[in-house]
């Protein structure tokens, strides 16, 4: 398989941080109460992961093994500070809602894990792609979980999008279930656990179904092979 294609598949599906590796669960569960918050934090994390992987890969041969972890954390913290200041300057209302979880990207396990496991051992371009795909995979889980919780909890989608695009964006909110009184537990922390558990179960079910299908296909091909003619 093409190595870049394999990196993409790993980040989006096989090693998805949210439903396979189960890393970075603190922001995953805390921020995913609606789609806008989920996408905002997910994209910020994706940018940090891609840039930090690229930076670590570019200096990996110049950092001794004894100090690599502090150096990696310093690189990540610097990039998170840039993203934090940029969000504060350009999308301040959304930045206030995300609060402490933007600076906490520094301590997100998946960011340091990918710099240590992949970026420190591979060239710059594959490392940046790995970080980006892992970030997008996490963003996808965040967005899907946010959509489920917001839809069940409020009956809407894109609630709070005006925080990112201004008051004119309030008309973009989709009222999927009109006159819906809401289901409070869905947008509270327990709803995050239920929703994430559902996504993990669905992903595992799909993976098991795919493996069984491939096994049956291989068995059928073996049965259809012509018998060997004895010498």
Summarize this entry quickly:
This protein has one domain. 66% of the residues lie in helices and 2% in strands.
What does it look like?
This protein has one domain (3-217). Helix content is 66%, strand content 2%. The model has no long low-confidence stretch (mean pLDDT 92). The chain has a two-stranded antiparallel ribbon. The protein is flat. The chain is built from nine helices and two strands; from the N terminus they run αααααααβαβα. It is mostly helical and 231 residues long. Helix 1 packs parallel to helix 7 and helix 7 (124-154) packs across helix 9.
Mean pLDDT: 92
So how many helices? Answer: 9
Number of domains: 1
Order of helices and strands: HHHHHHHEHEH
Structural class: mainly alpha
| Terminal residue distance | 38 Å
In which order are the strands of the major sheet placed? 1-2
Low-pLDDT segments: none
């Amino acid at each position: 398989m093409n190595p870049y294609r394999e990196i993409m598949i790993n980040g989006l599906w096989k090693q998805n941080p949210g439903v396979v590796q189960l890393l970075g669960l603190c922001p995953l569960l805390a921020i995913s109460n609606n789609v806008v918050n989920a996408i905002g934090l997910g994209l910020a994390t994706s940018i940090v992961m891609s840039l930090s992987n690229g930076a670590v890969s570019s200096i990996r041969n110049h950092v001794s093994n004894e100090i690599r972890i502090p150096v990696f954390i310093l690189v990540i913290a610097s990039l998170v500070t840039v993203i934090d200041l940029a969000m504060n300057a350009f999308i301040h209302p959304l930045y206030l809602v995300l609060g402490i979880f933007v600076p906490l990207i520094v301590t997100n396990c998946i960011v340091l894990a990918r710099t240590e496991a992949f970026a420190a051992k591979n060239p710059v371009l594959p490392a940046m792609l790995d970080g980006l795909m892992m970030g997008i995979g996490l963003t996808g889980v965040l967005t899907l979980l946010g959509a489920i919780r917001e839809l069940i909890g409020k009956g809407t989608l894109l609630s709070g999008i005006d925080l990112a695009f201004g008051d004119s964006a309030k008309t973009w909110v989709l009222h999927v279930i009109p006159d819906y009184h809401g289901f409070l537990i869905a947008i509270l922390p327990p709803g995050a656990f239920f929703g994430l558990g559902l996504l993990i179960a669905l992903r595992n079910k799909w993976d098991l179904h795919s493996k069984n299908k491939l096994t049956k296909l291989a068995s059928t091909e073996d049965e259809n092979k012509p018998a060997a003619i004895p010498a």
